[in-house]
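Entry 14. Ran structure prediction on the chain below.
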Amino acid sequence: MWKLIIKNLWSRRRRNGWLLAELILVAILSWAIFDPVMVVTYERHLPLGYDADRLCMVSVAMLPPEAPGYEPQAADSASLMQAYLNLVDRARQYPGVEQAAPVLSFVYPGAMGSGTSDFVAEGDSVVHSALYIEFLPHTHFFETYGFQSGEGSMSAARLSDLDNGYYYIMTEDLLEEMFHTHTYRNQRYWEVNGTDTFYTAVKGTVKACKYLSDWRPVPIVFMPQQHPDIRSSLDNLRMVIRLKEGVSTERFLHDFRPWMLRQLRAGNLYARGLQSYDEINAAREFSDSTALYRRNLSIALFFLINLCLGVIGTFWMQTRTRREEVGVMLSYGATPHRIRLMLLGEGTVLTTLATFIGCFIYLQYAFSEGLNKGNSWMPAVIPSWVDDFGLHFFLISLAVYVVLLLVVWAGIYIPARRISAISPTEALRDE
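Output, structure tokens:
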């Protein structure tokens, strides 16, 4: 069978040469389009690392001095902080709310802003960069967000309620990178300032999580705000709300918003906005990469459709022109099944050779420019096929090959099935 296939391809080498060139070009273009789409799609479908399904966020603002009801005596930092915590507690009492926590920063999961810092494990000198998220202790931060505690660490509720002091809580991937273990064992961070050495305890870990929904999980350090100056954060006052199991987010937003505008007022602070976390993540993605992703996805789909139509049409016509040849083979005793296998085998050989050449050509470009790394500008430390050049190239090449092969088979099988069904008598008459 394979000897006959090779013989047929060689005897029709001029025509097959054009088919091969077309498939090589298609393979190269497929690589350029499929690579970013597949990488970003993979990253978007990774778990967040926290439970965003029942999360909402309320933005809080301060009355301007000229506004009715403004209280000058309640404008100091202590009064504002107490009013802020009162708002959170009031929201916590609303029917359908499981938990609520203040977010006194512009840095939080899904936020437009971000901050990074450097960390060094005790006894080591290697500097590790990580994003940081600040939180207020004793405010149910970790259980409200739905973070899962890491191996060897205390529960999320206990992480939210640690004693006062300066400490860190890390994601497991950062712990692994810094201390070469994913199990928490009272590790410490250190820094040297002149002749002084300072140690900071790592009080616990949470499972790896995504800072942005279209990123892979990146190393994150959670820093407690022991003595925050609320007046410096008036533009970033928020509270995150977790709904009880079974509560409809849409219904809650509909009912809570008018109640919030009427009732969530304490001192000079008031609630002004409400969003579900799905809306927050969607808005963040749209502002950053969604438009590009949708464009690439649209191009990929458009290209795939045209690829299918073009390649299928080409092989359809090529197969139909061999009607007389197939008829002669039938008259000499060849079965329709064997004829279809032969024609499909010819297409498989051409597709395999074209994909190999096309991917090899693209490989030269990849060596100089690299492969797609997704949307995250912060390096991830969890191993992934995206960062493994060889595995990355193999998987995308395999996807290109499978798509091309299926398209070519579709372009061959349908006309081959028809022409292989003719009778030998009809074939001899045509001949």
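Residues 277-320 form the longest helix (44 residues). Will compare against last week's run tomorrow.
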